[in-house]
């Protein structure tokens, strides 16, 4: 999953208007080369340095001052990115911002800090830099990418469903914000896909807890978890099993009408599912049939 996300991030970076060299994704199973990611249309460049560095600034292009010239610092960061020295690259870009805070390259270096930190899996540092970019430059043309970089930095920290899912919730919120704020951006579609996977992950967590309660015989507690799945995560892949577990839980409690309704709704929406076959077997053990009670909360929920 991480490799796929990083490859998409590389593609996304090509859409940004910041001068850069070709970068190599170090540490990936299938290394990808980033060439001219940010273009060079707004670069105060001498064309003599355009070979390896694409549209990057020519070192020494600015007047000398205290510390390194902005061009030398900025291009040093790019070279370190190319070499896969992401931590060192992030430091170089931070120096651009520190030594030349009013240069347009400070703005661009801030976003590059976020990217370099993301590349080295320093997700919190990447998020902090991207969030600072958003705060300082809310109307910048690359703000959409900063939101996206924050979102995928959260997304890559999603943990196994047996663990706390607070990161998953944060990732979902950040991904949905990308789609909501920038629906026409190149990142919206990918953010929507990842948001769907995050929702499925949260639903899977509810299912895991619900199954635990059923196993313990705490049927009402389990039912409440499955109810949350079919209510809050109705478009996820967890819904067929959730309806089956509702059937199972209600039958265990002797609430036959609700069990029948859960099975009937399962059959109407997922007729070829094995979960429906199993639910049908459960409600048929007492000679019952999966008949829908249209006054049930389950029926009303799916009839919308």
Describe the structure.
The protein is mostly helical and 304 residues long. The protein has two domains: 2-157, Tetratricopeptide repeat domain (Serine Threonine Protein Phosphatase 5, Tetratricopeptide repeat), CATH 1.25.40.10; 206-303, Alpha Horseshoe (Serine Threonine Protein Phosphatase 5, Tetratricopeptide repeat). The protein is built from 14 helices and two strands; from the N terminus they run αββααααααααααααα. It has helices at residues 2-13, 50-53, 70-82, 86-99, 104-119, 123-136, 143-155, 166-181, 188-216, 219-232, 239-253, 256-269, 274-284, 297-303, and strands spanning 23-24, 33-34. A two-stranded antiparallel sheet has the order 1-2. Strand 1 and strand 2 (33-34) form a beta hairpin. Helix 6 (123-136) packs antiparallel against helix 7. The two termini are 34 Å apart. 42% of the residues are buried.
Key attributes of the depicted protein:
single chain, 304 residues, mainly alpha, Serine Threonine Protein Phosphatase 5, Tetratricopeptide repeat, two-stranded antiparallel ribbon, 14 helices
Topology (SSEs and partners):
Elements: H1 2-13, E1 23-24, E2 33-34, H2 50-53, H3 70-82, H4 86-99, H5 104-119, H6 123-136, H7 143-155, H8 166-181, H9 188-216, H10 219-232, H11 239-253, H12 256-269, H13 274-284, H14 297-303
Helix pairs in contact: 3-4, 4-5, 5-6, 6-7, 7-8, 8-9, 9-10, 9-11, 10-11, 11-12, 11-13, 12-13
